[in-house]
Amino acid sequence: MGVRLLVLVVLSVAIMVVDARFTLLKPVRSQMSLVLMQSYWIADLPERLYQGVASQFGSRTELAAENEKLKTENLLLQGRLQKLAALTEQNVRLRELLNSSALVNEKVEVAELIGMDPNPFTHRIIINKGERDGVVLGQPVLDARGLMGQVVELMPYTSRVLLLTDTTHSIPVQVNRNGLRAIASGTGNPERLELRHVADTADIKEGDLLVSSGLGQRFPAGYPVATVKEVIHDSGQPFAIVRAVPTAALNRSRYLLLVFSDGRSPEERAADAAQQQESLDRQTADPSAVPSATVPGAAPAATPNKPVVPATVPKPAGHSASSTPANANGAAAPTTTAPPAATPAKPATSKPPAKPAAKPVATRPATPAATPAAPREREE
Fold first, then answer.
1. Which has the closest alpha carbon to 121: 164, 152, 61, 166?
2. What pLDDT is attached to residue 86?
């Protein structure tokens, strides 16, 4: 037994040395790996069977739980998607409304539709703005596309709006193409308006845009009202039948605009505009008006000097003229010598409160020479 063990140890060491130093045993090792692979597979078979059975039963419960979880998440995501779609549509409507408010010159306020009249023969809606918000009776209401109606009933926090298509509502309109005036009345159909008393020979045709004319002093001028859909001419009737479709989405708009229009008449607005323009012109003309005011003040200052200069030029008349102002001045009366010719010049310079008056006197020696020439030419 000991000899066999020794032989096996020596053989093992020799094989390891040969395998480490040479490549002779590589084919043998590869063949042995094929044999040992089967043994490894057989030894691992129980473990794999246990894992397979456990995974079959465990994965079914996990898949069921995961399926329930995914269904819940799907429902939540679909709900959010629906809300996102609603928010997207709401954003689009608000952007359209914002664009329409940018085109409106008057002050506007956004309102929301919160109710409708259940009576099918009355076209009225309720909005969330009332008397506390500054809403007044007859105030125009429009959406992103055109006029919708007017406020007919006020409450503290809500208002009732009468739509254009109500049978009791009428609005003065005009054809945007040629300015033809007419009256658009409601028919009880939310998709139709009719033009009353339009002459059979009137220049109106399908596709014409009808805008508010502003003649009723209720709706501002220039807002879209309807589009002509049908024009029927009957030779036996004095008036044509004109049907139009409202431009506003009366059955679909949720966000509206309350227009706070100017209550002044066109004449008052024109007068106010003229006054504002006049005041603006005065403000702009103030800097140029100041020198124009000083120029007339300088001219009178020069004109009194002109009669004084010719009075002093002739010596004989100058003494009498100089003595009279000296007597008028009081203190200069006793001195009747030649200096009186200078004394009137001193009071003349002292009379004007501002010293710049003396400068024209110093610069006028050329003008006095011209002033006597002017009377000589007149005498000739």
1. 166
2. 66
**168 SS3 class:** coil
**Look-up: residue for tokens 């008056």?**
357
Length of the chain equals 380
How many helices (DSSP H) and strands (DSSP E) are in the chain?
Answer: 7, 12
Q: What token pair was written down for 163?
A: 């739509």
Residue 374 in tokens: 């002017």
> How far apart, in whole angstroms, are the C-alpha atoms of residue 13 and residue 21?
12
Integer Cα distance of 228 and 242 in angstroms:
7
- Distance CA(341)–CA(357), nearest Å, equals 19
- pLDDT per position as a tens digit, 260-287: 866 555 567 667 777 888 888 888 877 5
Instruction: Give residue 204's pLDDT.
Output: 92
Q: What is the DSSP secondary-structure string of 331-345?
A: TTSS--SSGGGTTTH
- From CA 157, how far away is CA 159, in angstroms rounded? 7
Q: What is the pLDDT of residue 208?
A: 92
Q: For residues 256 and 79, what is the distance between their CA atoms, to the nearest angstrom?
A: 27
Q: What is the largest CA-CA distance in the chain?
A: 179
Rounded CA-CA distance 49/44 in Å is 9
Can you list the residues of the chain whose pLDDT is less than 50? 289-380
Neighbour count for residue 5 (Cβ, 10 Å)? 9
Total Cβ atoms within 10 A of residue 122: 14
Burial of 175 (0-12, 13-18, 19+ CB in 10 A): buried
Q: Which DSSP symbol is given to 356?
A: G
Residue 348: other Cβ atoms inside 10 A: 17
| Closest CA relative to residue 113, chosen from 259, 261, 250 | 250
Q: pLDDT per residue over 4-60, tens digit each?
A: 888 888 888 888 888 777 777 777 777 777 777 777 788 888 888 888 777 777 677
Three-class DSSP category at 148: strand
pLDDT of residue 347: 43
Cα–chain center distance at 136: 24
